[in-house]
Structure formats: structure tokens, C-alpha cells
Amino acid sequence: MQARNLIDLADMTKEDLAEIIRLAGMIRDNPSIFTDACHGKIMATLFYEPSTRTQMSFQTAMLRLGGKVIGFDNPSNASVAKGESLKDTIRVVSGYADLIVMRNPVEGSAFAASLYSKSPIINAGDGGHLHPTQTLTDLVTLSYEKGTLEGLTIGLCGDMKNGRTVHSLIKTLSKYKGNRFVMISTPQLQMPPYILKILEESGCAYSFSDSLEASIAELDVLYMTRIQQERFPSIEEYEAQKGIYVLDEEKMRLAKSDLVVLHPLPRVDEITVGVDDDPRAKYFEQAEYGMYARMALIITMLQSRSGTLPAPQRWDDARSCKNPRCVTNTESYVPHRFYDKGGRAVCLYCDSLLEE
Amino acid sequence: MQARNLIDLADMTKEDLAEIIRLAGMIRDNPSIFTDACHGKIMATLFYEPSTRTQMSFQTAMLRLGGKVIGFDNPSNASVAKGESLKDTIRVVSGYADLIVMRNPVEGSAFAASLYSKSPIINAGDGGHLHPTQTLTDLVTLSYEKGTLEGLTIGLCGDMKNGRTVHSLIKTLSKYKGNRFVMISTPQLQMPPYILKILEESGCAYSFSDSLEASIAELDVLYMTRIQQERFPSIEEYEAQKGIYVLDEEKMRLAKSDLVVLHPLPRVDEITVGVDDDPRAKYFEQAEYGMYARMALIITMLQSRSGTLPAPQRWDDARSCKNPRCVTNTESYVPHRFYDKGGRAVCLYCDSLLEE
Amino acid sequence: MQARNLIDLADMTKEDLAEIIRLAGMIRDNPSIFTDACHGKIMATLFYEPSTRTQMSFQTAMLRLGGKVIGFDNPSNASVAKGESLKDTIRVVSGYADLIVMRNPVEGSAFAASLYSKSPIINAGDGGHLHPTQTLTDLVTLSYEKGTLEGLTIGLCGDMKNGRTVHSLIKTLSKYKGNRFVMISTPQLQMPPYILKILEESGCAYSFSDSLEASIAELDVLYMTRIQQERFPSIEEYEAQKGIYVLDEEKMRLAKSDLVVLHPLPRVDEITVGVDDDPRAKYFEQAEYGMYARMALIITMLQSRSGTLPAPQRWDDARSCKNPRCVTNTESYVPHRFYDKGGRAVCLYCDSLLEE
Description:
The structure is a homotrimer of 356-residue chains.
Chain A (H helix, E strand, L loop, with lengths): L13 H16 L12 E6 L4 H13 L3 E5 L13 H11 L2 E6 L4 H6 L6 E6 L5 H15 L6 E5 L6 H10 L6 E5 L8 H10 L2 E5 L2 H4 L5 E4 L10 H7 L7 H4 L7 E3 L20 H21 L23 H4 L7 E4 L2 E4 L9
Parallel strand pairs in A: 1-2, 1-3, 3-4, 5-6, 5-8, 6-7, 8-9
Antiparallel strand pairs in A: 10-11
Helix pairs in contact in A: 1-5, 1-11, 2-11, 5-6, 5-11
């Protein structure tokens, strides 16, 4: 793999992805071969906001490879409470650990961290921005459960508007041939235009639906999502949306016999417990594939580790990103930079447009 | 061992117990032989309420066997805060870990967890219900400190009414021949009738005492307990009871030269610090035996691991357990079931009577 | 090494220090040789107050040696919340772990812990009293970055009054020949008289300065410190002092080409980010040397481990230490003791004068 870090899944070529998927499968089939693959290596998990599931998945992955784990999950305890900058924490921890996995509510923070780290950075979620290893998990699961990443009819159901994992999955799957997307949601929670544009540019077919019941029969894959309360401006708006789309045993009867049902977990009420025993329900297996995907990623990233600091940035831009949740607005020393996208300036860290 | 999980110590036969005790002794005498006994294995410690002592004992046990540990001790951080069910957490974690140790304030939760787990479950305390590894610790300690589990005169002192560990210890020791129990407490904190019934059925002698001083001379074993504030309805009732029974150097002068003093720890004021240097005080050694007992248990449970899900439950009962702290009342999908005990229905999860 | 524990760096002879420094260098140059040096060993990190940096440094050190780590960083969760004494915790944990690293806000607590421990105790900070491994880190850093611990002109800048790390560093470096100290601070935050007395007794030259700019040119080493808000009686006094001494690129231009800039981290604003890329800035390397220093210390302490309890203390003094933060005033069973210093009684635990 060329990339030093995994900040955005777009950093990986299709060949990189194929390599990770292949390696994840090898690990799954022969776990004992990998018991000491990372013997003597240390991974730091820096979780500036708690996410037990993601942290546990990464920790298990490293431990199953014979490596060791340090880190924190409670930043109120951490040195950061004494006002330490992200840069200083990363400089110090990258002297301790061979690999850093970071989750941080600040958008663009993983990329910012990579500027100051001697060790590879894996982005385990930077606010509402990116969460590439969830998508990697989804790809590994689909590869092994469907046998292919091409020619699939993929239903996505629930919150299309705020669903970071759904956006990332669509962007990635749009690079594979012949996939078709059915977006099942209320009008209020429909897919943002920029995702539709990506689909159009890639030549993927897509359609909208407001009924899971009506659409389920045509699907090869159904990706259910949680309606996340924290994404809604009011409890009323949340209550109005949740519970509209619920997958149950009755709807499953309408589906293909080889449908694969996925869900990034944790679920609340979107899938009834009765569906769990259906062999087409693969969301618990998906979590296990996530562990294999992360094992493959850890091995790959450690191979690319140089152990040296990146060259200091010679670039800086006088303009400032307008996104208040962008790392360039919370860590003052970070050099600003924008890239061009169709004639408009976009922040290199958080991918926000400079001018709306 | 036949049992897949350790939910209740009653799941173990006397032969199972003898095997664990023997193995614990081997580990204690030759720890270095076991340094890599669980190499490549992962244990999850899921602590839904904090218990540093128990968690540290389990973690140390697994680490001393060369295994690895994942888990949480702060469920407010965990995915459960996003409303995840026990079933989902267990399904996912049993895909990560080869063995799950769970502590949970909900009664019957360990048994419920075992219905959904690919890996063995060890109950590290399910509310006020069961805490089998404490009793296992006590048995290992007595075996090695007294050389036998039979023919002992065992004093139990303090809170007989609420003391989960005391109830469990009596139930187990009543299966061994010739043991006699002296229950030393105030009338308010005396042993519940169902325990006395067990003793009668097993043919064990027992007596009551309200004076530690008067009873200590006849004892082979003295099991002291903490008066736990959280078990009392008011601070006044707690204050009235605590401090009535205190073991000090003066009382130790009345005791046999081969008395063994135990305490599940942490202690508050029930045993004065002056007793600590008495060679008959074995409560710190007891904690160390607990580590060896857990090492033996971990090895044994991992041997019985199948790595597959249990068959789905085909049973369900329309009746509901009346215990509000029972897992069947907090996790709605759990199938209800009752067993018969002398003509009365008892909840399979929390052992409460259906009708009082 | 003679000493069983590391409570105070004064417990170590110059030969002990030289040995640790030499071993730290060996580990740094050949880390892979030490990958399994502590295989099968357990270290407990008991952090009664959070210090992510120090804890992570110790944990990484042990893990890089192939050992395992248990412990807590959140004592509100721990058994101590049930009123457990320090003695009981240490007795139990020293039955689990081969080595104990403790941080505790109570002064003298590390020494008190050592009275009840079967395993060596490393003091990772006992309130404002001692923090020997920070000084060990500084010594290892200077040894390798300057090539010597003698004949250096050492500037210390910031809070000389409350700076525990600065006091300890001066005391230790005063034992090496030909060192000269320049104390750069406001009059309010100047070095306490007892430190000056130590310098006079050891024959070390020293001078005062109120200007970093004026003094920087003569320095071989510049040790910057954080002005710690928690040490000031009011926010006003803190605000008045902070920001007076800031090391920036401009001042660095006045310094020698082989100056070494150190800082115990975390920094706030005492050193501008622009200085970080200057090759003379060694504070991030210092954190890494700290890891090697702790690896060397762990190996050394484990070699001296006896695994038995210290003999019970036969001494006790009817007099009581007047320091309310002293462990003899928070743990009632600890035997009192005082040593003589120039005809005055000093508490053996917290080094406070009995009579001011």
C-alpha cells in the first residue's frame, strides 16, 4: 500500500482494497497463523470520545495478532484536560506506539494528527466526517457473503441524510461495476445531492423509495441504519422519524433467499429480534468481519511504517475554513490548505466548501 | 467439565470442583508451567457495574496464562448507552473473545447472556443473585489451608441475611460430609429460612450465636463478612448493625491455634489491622487463591468452548417473573421459563418464586 | 541495585543511576533484544489520580518488555470507594503483580505502601512530594543528548517555587561535578531556601535571573516548566505569572548551537510551536527517553524482587506529622516515624518538619 495513513477510504486504490480483503479472508480462514504476526508491536487507541464497539474491535484485532495496546477512552482524564494540543499528544504517543488509532469529535483531526506523527494514523472516526474502517468492514463482509462487489442491487434504508457510513459505502461501491442503489427513506432524511452527483458521475443506477416493503424483493443487499437521535435538532423530529422503517420477519418473507442484511450496529428498533435467527441476517457476522478487516489493516499499515516524522509543511493559506467543527479552527497551529473541486475551494482537512 | 458456562456453582459437580481445586494447586505450585497456557486466547471482561477487585483478579488470571484481555468497566461509556440490548452486545463480543466474564446488576443476566453467546460465560456477579467464583475462591482456600473440605466447624459472622457469598458458601459446603455451621449475627441479620432448609436436607448440623467472643473457641474456620451499607433501607439501620462484630487480637487469643480466618474483602472495620500479622489471618492469601482458582477455571472453560451459538430456545412461558430486578423484565426478548421446586414455580433466570 | 523500591531518587546511588542510564541506552539502541525480557511478569499501575501521560509511559515500557499490565486509573470506580485502606489494596495487588507503580495524591503514600507490599513499589508521584521517574527521565535525556552529566550550565525557567520536578532535578544534578544553575523566574516564584542550601553544601554555583532573553546565551541546557494553575491560591495570581517567560524562535537565535531544550510536558504556552522544529528542541525526545528509562527501571526492580512481605515495623512514634496531606494523617494504622535533620525532626514519609 502506498498511503502512510488511513484517513479517508479514498486514500486506498481498488488494488489496496482488494489486498486488504484478501488478507482479511486469509486471517479468517487461518487465524492461528497470525497469532504472533505483530509480536513486539504497540498500537495506541486514542479515543477522544467513547466508542466501546470500535475500540474493542481494534483492540481485539491487535491482540489477536500478538501485539499490545495502550491508550485512553476517557479524555476528561487525559492530559488534554491540562490544555495539551493534539500535536503534542501525537508527537509523544507516536514515540511510544508503532501505530495510532484515533477517534475524535473534531472534523479533520485525523489528517491533522498525521502531519505530526512518526507512526501511521488510522482514522476511527473524526466527528461526522469520515469513518473509513466501517466501510472497509462492509466491503469485507459483502465480498465474502455475496462473493463479489459488482453487479449488486443494494438497498439502503433509514437515515440517508446524516448517515456517514452510508455515504462512505456508496462512494466506495460506486467504483465497482454494475451496482445499483435503492435509497429507502422519508423525504426529510433523503440522500444529499453531492452523493447523487457521485453516483451520476460513476454511471451507477439509483432510485428512491419510501417503502421498505415495496422495495425489499428486488434487493441483493439490505443495509439498515439507525436513526441517531443526536443528529436531530429536536426530540420531536427524532420521534417523528424513528420507527418508520422496521425490518421484521414479515418483510423478510418478501425478500430473496440470498438477501444479505447488514447493519453497522448498535441497532435500536430498526430490526426486530425475530429476524436475528434468519440465516440472511448477517449483521453480527459483519461485526466479526470488522475484526478481520482491522487485523488485515493493522498488518498492512505496520508494513508501511517509516518511524520518522513527516517533513514539516511548507504550505499555509491565509484563508480560514468556515466549518466551526474543523480542526483548523480548534488547533490554531495547523496550517490551512484548500483544494480545488470544480472551481470551488474545499478544506483539505474537513472537506467543507470555503464558500457555500 | 460438562457445563458450557459457569452461571451458578450448582452447575458444577463435586468432581468438577475437585478438578478445579486440584488444577489451582498445580498452578500455584508451578506457575511458570502455565505462563503460555492460554497463548493466543482472548477473554472479555464486561463489567456493567464497577468491581475493580473482581475484574483485576480475572484479568491477572488470564494474563498470567499468557492470554489477552479486552472489555469495559464503565458501561456509561459503552454502546449500551446507545440503548443496545444485552443480546446484541453478547453476540458481537462472543465473536471477538474466546471467553466472556460478565458482571451485571441485573439478576439472571448471566444466564440470559449464555443463551446468545458463542463463547462460554462466567458469571462474575449478577446483582444480589449469584457470584460463583467467590465461592470457588473460598473452596480453594479452605482446601489448601485446612487440607480438607469435610468435618469442619465453620463460623460465619456478620450479615447472614443479605450476604450472597455466605449463602453460596453454605450451600456448597453442605454437600461435603460432616461440616457444622455456627451463624453469628444479630437477630435482624440472621440467615434466611431457605438456607436453613438446605442445611437440614443435607443433614448438616448448625447453631446460632449472637456472640463472636463466646463462639470463636470452637471454630476451625471463621468467615467474617462486611456489613454492606447498600443493603440497608436507611443509614440508621446500617449504623446500628455495623461495628457489633469486630474481630480483634483479644478475641483471636480465644481461638484455636489452627483457626483459619477468611473475609471476601474489601473489609471496613470488621477485622482490626492488628489481626493482619497473625498467621491464622488468611484473607489476603484468600485473594491470591482467588487468582489461582480463576486461572484453573479459565483453562477449564476454554477447553469446553465450542465456538458455536447455542440452539435457539424453543420454550417460552406466558407467565412473567415478579422480580423487578430479573433480566426477563429488563430485556424484553428473553424467553420466560420456570422450574418446579416443591410444587412451586421458580424463575429459571433469577430463582425467584413466581408466587410468594 | 540495593533498594527494594523506588520511592525517592535519593534511594539510588550514583552507581545505581549510572547503571540505569547505561541500560536505558542499550534498550534504545537494541530494542528488539528486550522484546521478551519481562515475559510472564505482571505490573500493576495503581493511579489514584489520573495522569494519562505517566501511566501510558509506564504501560508502554512494560509492554515493550513483553510483560503484562493490570491496574486502574479511576479510583472512584475502585474498591477504595468502598472504604478500603491503602494497606489492604497493596497487600492484595502485591499478590497479583510482580511490580507496583503507584500515583497517589497523598504525600508519603508510596513509602507507606512499600511497608505492606510483597512486590517492589515505584513511586509515580505522591502528591506534591516526589516524582522520581521524571528526574530519571531527565538524567537519561541529558546523558545521551549532552554526553555527560557534569560541567553543564543549566538554566531552569518558570515556576521554581512549586516545581517538584525542578527541585528533584537540581538535587540530583548537584551530586555531579561542575554543574552551574541559572534560575530564571519572577521573585514570587523563586527557588525555596532549602534547595539553595543543598546547592551551597554541594559546592555548585548558581545565579538568579529575571530574564530568559538575557540568560539564554550562556546555557548548555534550558529546562522550561509549566506554570501550574492548581498551585496558585487565586486565578489572578496565576494569570499574572503565566506568559512572562515564553521561549520562541527569536530567543532561540540568541542560544548556543548545542543548547538542549527540555520540558516535562504537557506544555501550555511556555514554548511556541515554532520552536518545535528547531533541532535543539528535545522535549518530545525526552518523553521517549522516559520510556527507555522506565524500561530500564522495570528490569532492574524486577531483579531485586523478593516476593515476600517486609518485616513488620517495630517502630512507632507517639508524635504526629503536622502535614494534613501526609499519609500518616489519612491512613490511621501507619506507624509514625521521624528522622533527624540538623537537630530537627522530619517526617520519614512526607519529609515535612515536625515543628516549623
